[in-house]
Amino acid sequence: MYHALLFFHLLAAFFLAAGIVIYSGFVLGGPVSRATRTIAEILWGVGGLGTLVLGIWLALNRPEYELWDGWIIAALVLWVLATGSGAQASRGVQPVGDDTAVAIDRRTMFAHWMRVLWFTLLLVMMVWKPGA
Amino acid sequence: MSLVALIRPDSWGLPLFLHIAGAMVLVGALTLSSVSLIGAWRTASPALTRLAYMSLFYGALPGYIVFRIGAEWIADKEGLADSDLTWIGIGYGVSDIGALLLIISLVIGGISIRRMNRGGLASPIAARIVTGLVSLVLVAYLVAVWAMTTKPT
To answer: For chain B: N or C, fewer Cβ within 10 A?
Structure first.
């Protein structure tokens, strides 16, 4: 059970990362097509939900972990921050319909790079598990 | 091995972080490339084709290098560099085949970009070949993630 949960939890994290990399392509001046943006949104949504649900399930599944462990609470806070930044970045990137690069305002760019930062810190938390 | 995954020395943190972060950038860039190329099939968009190939060069290639350095480093730390464990074999096998397919994709992409820079059109056949190769690598990495987490013996 633990291995299956860990596999799907990590797979969901890869979905999140793929969504972030696709958005980085948009923010760095790549063309924004409707299909690519939709796939990035699906990856981000499924990955976000998957990491949260399976992460909590993992914490409940293992006697070594408790939901109120400091690193798990920190990870949940980072997940919320990443989701908030992601929602803001998502609103600011809209396709124009002809597969060309779109002008992205500074707030949207800032939101996207903050999401990258929160996600990186989340990964740091998962790897080092401070206090575990 | 599960217990090792749950409680590991702090000194293993950096190589593991590099291994996972590199793999995530690699998979993300391959996904972006694949999705952009499939989009370019329909529209013949040079911008999408360029994005697909550039994401391989600026995303997948550095991601692969970091992921592989992290893999060697963590395997060395864990004393698994010369191990004949099945999951380690799957990891190295997928990584080596993935590198080969990535290099082939980069060469084809580089030729296409050069052609576009000279005012020509991107080859639709090249785009289809690279889509196939990149999709194959993505499936192989899915198997590798499964092997790394479930550690079959």
So the answer is: C
